[in-house]
Design brief:
It is elongated and about 60 Å long. Helix 2 (10-30) packs across helix 3, helix 5 (57-82) packs antiparallel against helix 6 and helix 7 packs across helix 8 (149-156). It contains nine helices and no strands. It is 71% helix and 0% strand. It is mainly α.
Protein backbone atom coordinates (compact mmCIF):
# COMPACT_ATOMS: atom_id res chain seq x y z
CA UNK A 1 0.00 0.00 0.00
CA UNK A 2 1.35 3.41 -0.92
CA UNK A 3 2.09 5.53 2.19
CA UNK A 4 0.62 8.53 0.42
CA UNK A 5 -2.81 6.85 0.32
CA UNK A 6 -2.74 5.73 3.97
CA UNK A 7 -2.77 9.28 5.33
CA UNK A 8 -5.77 11.54 4.85
CA UNK A 9 -5.20 14.48 2.56
CA UNK A 10 -5.33 17.96 3.96
CA UNK A 11 -8.72 18.40 2.26
CA UNK A 12 -10.01 15.21 3.91
CA UNK A 13 -8.91 16.49 7.30
CA UNK A 14 -10.62 19.84 6.71
CA UNK A 15 -13.77 18.10 5.52
CA UNK A 16 -13.75 15.88 8.61
CA UNK A 17 -13.35 18.90 10.86
CA UNK A 18 -16.23 20.76 9.20
CA UNK A 19 -18.45 17.67 9.33
CA UNK A 20 -17.65 17.17 13.04
CA UNK A 21 -18.51 20.82 13.74
CA UNK A 22 -21.79 20.63 11.80
CA UNK A 23 -22.87 17.43 13.52
CA UNK A 24 -21.76 18.70 16.95
CA UNK A 25 -23.70 21.95 16.49
CA UNK A 26 -26.90 20.05 15.74
CA UNK A 27 -26.36 17.37 18.39
CA UNK A 28 -25.45 19.82 21.16
CA UNK A 29 -28.44 22.01 20.30
CA UNK A 30 -30.68 18.96 20.74
CA UNK A 31 -29.00 17.65 23.91
CA UNK A 32 -26.14 19.50 25.57
CA UNK A 33 -24.92 16.30 27.21
CA UNK A 34 -24.41 14.32 23.99
CA UNK A 35 -21.19 12.27 24.07
CA UNK A 36 -18.21 12.86 21.83
CA UNK A 37 -18.47 9.22 20.75
CA UNK A 38 -22.03 9.85 19.53
CA UNK A 39 -20.89 12.98 17.68
CA UNK A 40 -18.03 11.09 16.00
CA UNK A 41 -20.34 8.24 14.97
CA UNK A 42 -22.95 10.61 13.54
CA UNK A 43 -20.20 12.52 11.68
CA UNK A 44 -18.94 9.26 10.18
CA UNK A 45 -15.47 9.53 11.70
CA UNK A 46 -13.62 7.55 14.32
CA UNK A 47 -13.29 8.90 17.84
CA UNK A 48 -9.54 9.25 17.25
CA UNK A 49 -10.21 11.57 14.33
CA UNK A 50 -12.49 13.70 16.50
CA UNK A 51 -9.85 13.87 19.24
CA UNK A 52 -7.15 14.86 16.72
CA UNK A 53 -9.23 17.92 15.88
CA UNK A 54 -10.68 18.55 19.34
CA UNK A 55 -8.70 17.10 22.25
CA UNK A 56 -11.65 17.44 24.63
CA UNK A 57 -15.31 18.39 24.81
CA UNK A 58 -14.53 21.95 25.87
CA UNK A 59 -12.29 22.59 22.86
CA UNK A 60 -15.09 21.44 20.54
CA UNK A 61 -17.66 23.66 22.24
CA UNK A 62 -15.36 26.69 22.23
CA UNK A 63 -14.62 26.20 18.51
CA UNK A 64 -18.35 26.07 17.79
CA UNK A 65 -18.84 29.21 19.87
CA UNK A 66 -16.08 31.07 18.03
CA UNK A 67 -17.35 30.00 14.63
CA UNK A 68 -20.97 30.89 15.37
CA UNK A 69 -20.22 34.24 17.03
CA UNK A 70 -17.94 35.27 14.16
CA UNK A 71 -20.68 34.28 11.71
CA UNK A 72 -23.14 36.53 13.56
CA UNK A 73 -20.65 39.41 13.67
CA UNK A 74 -20.01 39.11 9.92
CA UNK A 75 -23.69 38.68 9.09
CA UNK A 76 -24.92 41.96 10.63
CA UNK A 77 -23.34 44.38 8.13
CA UNK A 78 -24.19 42.08 5.22
CA UNK A 79 -27.86 42.07 6.23
CA UNK A 80 -27.82 45.83 6.86
CA UNK A 81 -26.54 46.41 3.32
CA UNK A 82 -28.95 44.04 1.59
CA UNK A 83 -32.26 44.38 3.49
CA UNK A 84 -34.47 47.09 4.93
CA UNK A 85 -33.40 47.79 8.54
CA UNK A 86 -36.27 46.08 10.36
CA UNK A 87 -36.03 43.00 8.15
CA UNK A 88 -32.24 42.89 8.61
CA UNK A 89 -32.59 43.21 12.37
CA UNK A 90 -35.20 40.46 12.61
CA UNK A 91 -33.26 38.09 10.35
CA UNK A 92 -30.17 38.66 12.46
CA UNK A 93 -32.16 38.09 15.66
CA UNK A 94 -33.45 34.82 14.18
CA UNK A 95 -29.83 33.73 13.61
CA UNK A 96 -29.00 34.70 17.21
CA UNK A 97 -31.93 32.51 18.33
CA UNK A 98 -30.48 29.56 16.37
CA UNK A 99 -27.19 30.11 18.16
CA UNK A 100 -29.14 30.27 21.44
CA UNK A 101 -30.25 26.66 20.93
CA UNK A 102 -26.61 25.59 21.00
CA UNK A 103 -25.69 27.81 23.90
CA UNK A 104 -28.60 26.53 25.99
CA UNK A 105 -26.94 23.18 26.58
CA UNK A 106 -23.33 24.35 26.84
CA UNK A 107 -23.50 27.84 28.35
CA UNK A 108 -21.48 26.89 31.43
CA UNK A 109 -18.53 25.80 29.28
CA UNK A 110 -18.62 29.01 27.23
CA UNK A 111 -18.96 31.19 30.33
CA UNK A 112 -16.04 29.45 32.00
CA UNK A 113 -13.84 29.87 28.91
CA UNK A 114 -14.70 33.56 28.55
CA UNK A 115 -14.78 34.46 32.27
CA UNK A 116 -18.56 34.96 32.00
CA UNK A 117 -17.99 37.22 28.99
CA UNK A 118 -15.55 39.54 30.76
CA UNK A 119 -12.57 38.12 28.88
CA UNK A 120 -14.34 37.47 25.59
CA UNK A 121 -12.58 38.76 22.49
CA UNK A 122 -15.90 38.65 20.63
CA UNK A 123 -17.85 40.83 23.07
CA UNK A 124 -17.05 44.26 21.60
CA UNK A 125 -17.33 43.10 17.96
CA UNK A 126 -20.70 41.51 18.79
CA UNK A 127 -21.89 44.80 20.28
CA UNK A 128 -20.60 46.50 17.14
CA UNK A 129 -22.71 44.15 15.00
CA UNK A 130 -25.79 45.07 17.01
CA UNK A 131 -24.93 48.77 16.67
CA UNK A 132 -24.75 48.46 12.86
CA UNK A 133 -28.32 47.15 12.78
CA UNK A 134 -29.65 49.64 15.34
CA UNK A 135 -28.00 52.58 13.60
CA UNK A 136 -29.48 51.57 10.24
CA UNK A 137 -32.96 51.42 11.76
CA UNK A 138 -32.55 54.73 13.58
CA UNK A 139 -31.30 56.43 10.39
CA UNK A 140 -34.31 55.11 8.50
CA UNK A 141 -36.65 56.19 11.30
CA UNK A 142 -38.06 52.74 12.08
CA UNK A 143 -36.08 52.24 15.30
CA UNK A 144 -35.72 54.54 18.29
CA UNK A 145 -32.70 56.82 18.43
CA UNK A 146 -29.99 56.24 21.00
CA UNK A 147 -30.57 52.53 21.62
CA UNK A 148 -27.73 50.93 23.56
CA UNK A 149 -26.38 47.75 21.90
CA UNK A 150 -25.48 46.32 25.30
CA UNK A 151 -29.10 46.72 26.45
CA UNK A 152 -30.22 44.82 23.37
CA UNK A 153 -27.64 42.09 24.05
CA UNK A 154 -29.01 41.72 27.57
CA UNK A 155 -32.49 41.31 26.12
CA UNK A 156 -31.24 38.71 23.65
CA UNK A 157 -29.48 36.75 26.39
CA UNK A 158 -32.85 35.30 27.37
CA UNK A 159 -32.62 33.21 24.19
CA UNK A 160 -29.97 30.91 25.68
CA UNK A 161 -32.28 30.18 28.62
CA UNK A 162 -35.04 28.73 26.44
CA UNK A 163 -35.19 24.94 26.47
CA UNK A 164 -35.26 23.87 22.81
CA UNK A 165 -37.10 20.67 23.77
CA UNK A 166 -40.00 22.61 25.27
CA UNK A 167 -41.25 24.70 22.36
CA UNK A 168 -38.06 26.71 22.09
CA UNK A 169 -38.47 27.93 18.51
CA UNK A 170 -42.01 29.20 19.07
CA UNK A 171 -41.12 30.86 22.36
CA UNK A 172 -37.99 32.46 20.84
CA UNK A 173 -40.06 33.90 17.99
CA UNK A 174 -42.54 35.42 20.46
CA UNK A 175 -39.75 36.91 22.56
CA UNK A 176 -38.03 38.34 19.48
CA UNK A 177 -41.33 39.95 18.44
CA UNK A 178 -41.50 41.61 21.86
CA UNK A 179 -37.90 42.81 21.63
CA UNK A 180 -38.36 44.23 18.13
CA UNK A 181 -41.62 45.93 19.16
CA UNK A 182 -39.77 47.58 22.06
CA UNK A 183 -37.05 48.87 19.74
CA UNK A 184 -39.42 50.38 17.18
CA UNK A 185 -39.94 54.10 17.02
CA UNK A 186 -43.56 54.81 18.02
CA UNK A 187 -45.71 55.78 15.09
CA UNK A 188 -47.21 59.19 15.41
CA UNK A 189 -50.91 58.91 14.90
CA UNK A 190 -53.54 61.53 14.23
CA UNK A 191 -54.17 63.94 17.07
CA UNK A 192 -57.15 63.01 19.22
Amino acid sequence: MNAQHSKPTRRDALDNRERILAVAREALAEAGGVSLTAIAKKAGVGIGTLYRHFPNRESLIIELYRHDIQHLIDLAPALAESHPPLQALRQWFDEVARYGRLKYGVAEVIHAATDRGLDDEYYEPFLGAIAVLLDAGAAEGTLKDGLDPEDVLLQLSVLWRIDPARGGDVRAARILDLIVDGLRRPRSGPAA
